[in-house]
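Second opinion, please. Pick holes in both lines of this record:
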Amino acid sequence: MQFNRRQNRIAGPGFHYNVRYDDQTMARAHSQVNECHPKLKLGTTNKENFDVKEQELLVCQAKSGMYHDGYTHCFSFVNGLPDTKSVAEAELEEAILSSVRYVGVATTEYKPSRSYSEQGFVAQVGGVSTLINESQETIKPGDTLVLGVNLAINRRVTRDKGIPRDKIRFCLKRAAVGDGLITKALALAGCTEVTNKPAADAARKKIAAANKALAAAKKAKNKTNADAAEAAIDAATGDLAASQVCSTGKAGLKKFLAKLQELNSRVIGRSCSYARPGDRLEVVLQPRNPY
């Protein structure tokens, strides 16, 4: 049965370019299974998990010096990614995303084999694309979307037809913006020493109280109170970020700026529609400018 994954409901130009498949990463995923995190061992014996399907998100290795042909060599799988064996489960997603760089959306399918030509393997880097929300959160129109990995794989099922149920692949997620993005970059860079403890403690109490109010409002289905609670959480998060600074001097500041730029490089585009987990949505792909 054939499945049409390019269900574009918005007309617009697209920008595409030729890419190549990353055979080296696939070979390591096959041969170095014991070097990956236990969660990523799922589906490594199924060769179809390493195929590229239309509309999958493509990435390349952040550090790779094997290829010298001038092409971007990319892949779409997470199963069996090596060098993740010793990573804590809570840090696994960040470790995966830090090791790759977002390339684009697969316009064509590709099946790695000796008899299959790489000619015609194309990635879309601009324009409008219809993708599927495989995250665990609802995406709304206007949301900035970034590259992510949904590791809640106990369900052992993708949200797209024609994809092996045990394939782990990259997905869309809502991006942290403003103070939330800065707070996240500070935490990942290890530069979150509190310089104003009373202010930080007060901000944390406000966040906790606002979270309780938000839960109560959702239970009571009171949208007004829920919106007010979300606004209070955003304000308190900003206060918490303001009470923290990078205290490791110039080296720490450089590390923070590098992480901030890395987080911005994961931006895929902007949502044009509302999508619950499992729904399709239109995304305007945009240049990944860190500024």
About this structure: The first helix runs from residue 23 to 31.
